Amino acid sequence: MAAIWVHAAVGKDGLVQPSAFELLSKARSLGEDVAAVVLGPGAASSAAALGDHGARTLFACDDAVFAEHPAEPAVHVLAELAHRHEPELILFAPGCESREVAGRLQGVLGTTLVSNVDDLVSSDHVQLRVALSVWPGRPGNMRGGVAGTKVVD
Fold first, then answer.
1. How far is it, in rounded angstroms, from Cα 133 to Cα 114?
2. Which tens digits make up the pLDDT trace of 72-111?
3. Distance CA 131, CA 133 (A)
4. Are 31 and 123 in contact (CB under 8 A)?
5. In angstroms, rounded to a whole number, what is the distance separating the alpha carbons of residues 61 and 44?
6. Which residue from 21, 40, 101, 133 has the fewest beta carbons nearer than 10 Å?
7. Strand ranges inside the chain, DSSP E
8. Does the predicted model carry a pTM greater than 0.70?
9. What percent helix, strand, coil does the chain show, rounded to 5?
C-alpha cells in the first residue's frame, strides 16, 4: 500500500497546528505508512510531536519562504515530493492556507481534490456531509439545515 501523507501546517508561532495531529490519527487508522509534510519556520522541531501522533516519515523544511509566501513554494515542494514518492493520498486541514495549497497542488498534479470531507472511510471511499444555509432576506433571520449525507464511490 502506498503512503498516506498529512500536510501539517505551521502557525505564525512556529508550532504545528492541532488539526495536523487529528489528520495523522485518521491516516494511521487507514494504513501504517504515514508521513507528514511540514514546511516553514519550526518545521524540524515538530518532528517528535508528529512522530508521537503516527508519522513514520517526516518531510520538513524550516525555510522562512514558506511563512512569507505560504502557497506557491509549498505547492512546488509538495509536487516534487509527490512525483518522487507517489503517495496514495494527501490530507489537508480545512484552514485557508491549507485549502489554497491543496487546490493549487491539485492543478499541478492533475489529480482529484475532494474538500469538506466529514469522514474518510478508506483511501478510496469518502463520506461527505453537505450543509446548506437558507437566507430568507431579512437580517438576523437565518435558518440552517443539513442537506444530507452522501457516500461517494
1. 21
2. 999 999 999 999 999 989 999 988 889 999 999 999 999 8
3. 7
4. yes
5. 7
6. 133
7. 4-7, 34-39, 57-61, 89-91, 117-122, 125-134, 143-152
8. yes
9. 35, 30, 35
